[in-house]
Amino acid sequence: MSALLSFTDAAVTYIQGMLVKNQGHGFRVSIKKTGCTGFSYAPTIVQEAPAGDVHFVAQGLRVYLDPDCVDLVKGLTVDYQEEKKEGGLKQKKLVFINPNEKSRCGCGESFHV
Questions:
Q1: Rounded Cα distance, 38 and 61, in Å
Q2: How far is CA 4 from the centre of its chain?
Q3: Which residues contact 12 (CB under 8 A, 6 or more apart)?
Q4: C or N: which end of the chain has fewer Cβ atoms within 10 Å?
Q5: What is the mean pLDDT of the chain?
Q6: Are 90 and 20 in contact (CB under 8 A)?
Q7: Share of the chain above pLDDT 70, in %
Q8: Is 22:14 a contact under the CB 8 Å cutoff?
């Protein structure tokens, strides 16, 4: 099952830190219908295993996947990036690299498959 999703080292480090900070049990990936082009990613730290979710361990992380979005995220890579913005500010965020995406909206927050 772990071939469904992969994580960069930076993402693993960030998520592990969030798990400790939030006393979490695992990392959950789901997708919600929203935005300009249809879908957006909804990652969360969960306190317990969600009933009915697909679950596996990937790179040492307990991962839970909403069963309704399995086909939409096959091959997804989760990365963590820091972007320098104007004025010296840094934006830090998880980035989802999905080979199934056909397009993204202009702001980059939603996608279409």
A1: 28
A2: 12
A3: 59, 60, 61
A4: N
A5: 84
A6: no
A7: 81
A8: no
* Paired tokens of 18: 């969030």
Amino acid 93: pLDDT: 87
H-state helical runs in 1-113 = 9-21, 70-73
Q: Report which DSSP code applies to 24.
A: -
Q: Which one has a higher pLDDT value, 99 or 43?
A: 43
pLDDT at residue 98, as a whole number: 84
How far apart CA 14 and CA 79 sit, in angstroms, is: 9
Q: What is the pLDDT of residue 1?
A: 45
Question: Two tokens at 105?
Answer: 């909206």
Give the residue carrying structure tokens 């596996």. 56
CA distance linking residue 17 with residue 24, whole number of Å? 10
> Hey, what are 74's tokens?
């096959």
67 contact partners, CB below 8 Å, separation of at least 6: 52, 53, 54
**DSSP codes joined into one string, 16-85:** HHHHHHTT-SEEEEEEEEETTTEEEEEEEEESSPPTT-EEEEETTEEEEE-GGGHHHHTTEEEEEEEEE-
DSSP 85: -
